[in-house]
Write a structure and sequence with these properties.
Length: 187
């Protein structure tokens, strides 16, 4: 931004350990979530809101991975870093909205379709609100304010926790519906 103060390079360097941990956590969890969702493909494919939930979980973890990895790039300025993070978080919010609208149109003609989608609507509103919070942090980084790092860090942690809870609830919902115990063995 024109006329913005630049965050000291040492401040960016101080955050690299945290964001390195967040990138590793997000990547590891993305792998575990991918395996868990792969084990329940049939249930996920059968119901559009489950597809939405699975897509949003994986996309959110990958977003935290990319977001955190950007901090690790050498020679980043606060201006570029803030702008990059703003774009990544904004893209995640847009993806969540698009994915929800896609699920909504898929169930609109089902009996009680839109009523059953109401909890997903609330989750999407909260997730997009969380993205707006993260975007505010990225904008502060772009403006050269170190407080933006704290907000983006909080956003990253909240997103990871959100995805773990969301994925756990999805897998439990699918296993309850199909009457399985969640293992790949036969009963």
């Amino acid at each position: 931004m024109l006329g913005a103060t630049e965050i000291d390079a040492q401040i960016i360097a101080d955050w690299r350990v945290f964001f390195g941990m967040a990138a590793g956590t997000a990547a590891g969890l993305a792998g575990l979530v991918f395996v868990a969702l792969s084990m329940h493909q049939k249930g996920i494919r059968s119901y559009p809101p489950y597809r939405y939930r699975a897509r949003s979980s994986l996309a959110s973890l990958m977003m935290v991975f990319v977001l955190s990895s950007l901090v690790l790039f050498p020679g980043q300025t606060s201006e570029w870093l803030g702008l990059q993070e703003l774009v990544v978080i904004g893209a995640e919010g847009a993806f969540l909205t698009w994915s929800f609208l896609r699920a909504r149109s898929a169930v609109a003609n089902l009996p009680l379709g839109l009523t059953l989608l109401r909890p997903y609507q609330m989750r999407t509103i909260l997730a997009v609100g969380l993205c707006l919070f993260g975007m505010a942090g990225a904008a502060l980084m772009w403006a050269g304010l170190g407080a933006g790092f704290y907000i983006v860090a909080g956003f990253s942690v909240a997103t990871i926790v959100w995805v773990v809870i969301n994925t756990w609830a999805l897998v439990l919902g699918i296993t309850e519906e199909d009457g399985s115990d969640g293992t790949s063995g036969s009963k």
